[in-house]
Design goal:
This protein is an alpha/beta fold. Helices cover about 30% and strands about 15% of the residues. The protein contains nine helices and nine strands. The protein has helices at about 10-15, 30-35, 55, 60-65, 65-85, 90-100, 110-115, 180-190, 240-255, and strands at about 1-5, 25-30, 100-105, 120-125, 125-135, 165-170, 195, 220, 235. Strands 1-9-8-7-2-3-4 form a seven-stranded parallel β-sheet, with helices on both faces. Helix 7 (about 110-115) links the parallel strand 3 and strand 4. It is elongated, with a radius of gyration of 19 Å. The two termini are about 30 Å apart. About 40% of the residues are buried. Bound molecules: ligand BV8 and zinc ion. Zinc ion binds next to loops.
């Protein structure tokens, strides 16, 4: 495993990328959106909820305990995402998919991959834009988030059963959508290049997905502070810097359009 802290494509990495890849998969985490100004899950600011650990708020227990605090937190995050723009990393992944056919799997609950041009994104942990009734499950379309940040915001009620509307995300202790998880495992099991971008790889089952990559697949991690991992190459750079350079290298070596 190599680790390189340079900001241009390291030679060893460009050598790794010089073969032809037919089935590229991207697996992203919160670091993917850090360059768009979205705080990461474990090392970002938590705003008005600064005394709370995001992992403690993203739980059914917190929701049962204080719906207004949790709903206020998610509405703050939804507002941040709506005001943010996809960064060059999101755009490069959209191009990677257009030119080389790439599956995008994300732990993120934002829509920045889609706004960067990616389609068919698998959201392992749901989405800020998929609210639903906590009682009858009816999908609920949200309007604009509150204009100013409020610490406590009561969630809306379901027009069908008067239940509370909850965020459309997977909380700790909740199961992931089995279809989404199976789909992600299948895509990674068939890949020949896996790009792991901006994740601390501590949350399961997402963190275990890279283990499904077949022997012979090339696994590359892009992260300014990579953790221990079984990759072929750890590139200590950001998503916004690394992914456009990686796209250039693949375009150069794979002859542009597929
Ligand atoms: C499950 C949605 C079966 C919500 C999230 C005890 C009780 C219950 C469960 C467990 C338990 N012990 C273990 C578990 C399993 C648990 C788990 O894994 N816990 C961990 C913490 C030990 N998992 C679950 O509960 C999952 N469900 O297992 O169900 C079950 C059922 C009952 C009981 C047991 C098991 C559900 C997990 C899903 C939780 N929901 N999100 C929301 O967003 O509010 S996870 C949350 O963490 C986010 O989705 C986030 O994406 C994800 C992972 O974090 P990262 O994306 O990696 O973000 P992080 O901040 O950690 O790291 C950022 C990285 O980016 C860093 O490496 C940094 O260096 C890098 N970076 C920074 N800047 C940049 C950058 N990279 C590139 N460019 C940059 N510019
Ligand atoms: Zn309902």
């Amino acid at each position: 495993m190599n680790t390189n802290t340079s900001q241009e494509m390291p030679v060893r990495l460009s050598e790794l990328l010089s073969r032809r890849f037919e089935r590229i998969v991207v697996l992203s985490g919160a670091g993917m959106s850090a360059d768009s100004g979205i705080p990461t899950f474990r090392s970002g600011s938590n705003g008005l909820w600064h005394e709370f650990n995001p992992s403690d708020l993203a739980t059914p227990e917190a929701w049962e305990d204080d719906k207004a605090l949790v709903w206020g937190w998610y509405e703050w995050r939804r507002g941040l995402v709506m005001a943010a723009r996809p960064n060059p990393g999101h755009v490069a992944i959209g191009e990677l998919q257009r030119l080389h056919g790439t599956s995008v799997i994300t732990q993120n609950v934002d829509d920045l991959h889609e706004r960067g041009g990616a389609t068919g994104v698998l959201h392992l942990h749901g989405s800020l834009f998929a609210a639903r009734c906590d009682t009858c499950g009816a999908p609920h379309v949200l309007g604009d988030p509150p204009s100013e940040i409020q610490r406590q915001v009561m969630p809306p009620r379901c027009p069908y059963c008067d239940g509370y509307i909850r965020p459309g995300v997977v909380w700790f202790g909740e199961d992931l959508d089995p279809e989404v998880l199976d789909n992600a495992r299948e895509r990674i099991a068939a890949c020949d290049l896996l790009l792991i971008v901006g994740t601390s790889s501590v949350v399961y089952p997402a963190a275990g997905l890279s283990g499904y990559a077949p022997n012979g697949a090339t696994i590359i991690e892009i992260n300014p502070q990579p953790g221990p991992s079984l990759t072929d190459y750890q590139w200590q750079t950001t998503a916004a810097i690394g992914l456009p350079l990686l796209l250039d290298a693949l375009n150069h070596d794979q002859g542009g359009e597929k």
